[in-house]
């Protein structure tokens, strides 16, 4: 009987502490439930703020984008990742059998294509190397896109736009382009290794 009373007192004390811990205090400051609510609301605001900051920082990162795509043999639907904002130097690549386009862009990127080999697919509607994604011609005509020393085969064509002056492409130049006639030799051993399990590559 004494043991039961002892545990009943302990249980009552724990309940009292829990009850007092979650009740608002009378001194005008919020405790317990209010503090918990504030904490959850703060987390929601921080989460929303973090999402906004992440989106903003991604836009800023895109705007400062400078990339070089070099010495690659490619056979995919769209050959280069979507170029957004920034500056892109596409140099000495071998583009063959694309299904839609080889180079795509949106949000006013600068694209400098030099010394590449573009071999268009058989499809007569997929001969164009370039694609301005979801953008009217009146808008993209001022984007700086140029082809210099590229080899265009099987009816492939590159639609240039914007400035032709070399100074406009200074930030979209990362290395000296070799002649497009050398692309086959340069990319002959490019790509994934043909390794097999338990054998030396």
Automatic annotation (TrEMBL):
The keyword NAD does not apply. GO terms for molecular function: pectate lyase activity. It is found in: Secreted, Cell wall. Belongs to the polysaccharide lyase 1 family. Its main location: secreted. Residues 1-28 form the signal peptide. It comes from the Eukaryota. This is Uncharacterized protein. The keyword Signal applies. It comes from Populus deltoides. Keywords: Cell wall, Secreted, Signal. PANTHER family: PECTATE LYASE, PECTATE LYASE 18-RELATED.
């Amino acid at each position: 009987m004494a043991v039961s009373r002892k545990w009943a007192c302990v249980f009552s004390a724990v309940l009292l502490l829990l009850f007092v811990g979650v009740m608002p205090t009378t001194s005008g400051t919020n405790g317990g439930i209010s503090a918990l609510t504030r904490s959850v609301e703060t987390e929601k605001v921080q989460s929303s703020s973090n999402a906004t900051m992440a989106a903003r920082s991604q836009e800023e990162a895109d705007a400062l984008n400078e990339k070089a795509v070099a010495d690659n043999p490619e056979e995919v639907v769209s050959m280069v990742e979507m170029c957004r904002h920034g500056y892109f130097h596409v140099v000495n690549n071998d583009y063959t059998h694309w299904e839609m386009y080889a180079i795509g862009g949106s949000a006013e990127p600068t694209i400098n294509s030099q010394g590449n080999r573009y071999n268009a697919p058989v499809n007569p509607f997929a001969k164009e190397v370039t694609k301005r994604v979801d953008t009217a011609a009146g808008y993209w005509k001022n984007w700086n896109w140029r082809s210099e020393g590229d080899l265009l085969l099987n009816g492939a064509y590159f639609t240039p736009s914007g400035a032709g002056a070399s100074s406009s492409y200074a930030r979209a130049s990362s290395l000296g382009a070799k002649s497009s006639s050398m692309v086959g030799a340069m990319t002959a051993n490019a790509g994934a290794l043909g390794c097999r399990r338990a054998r030396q590559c």
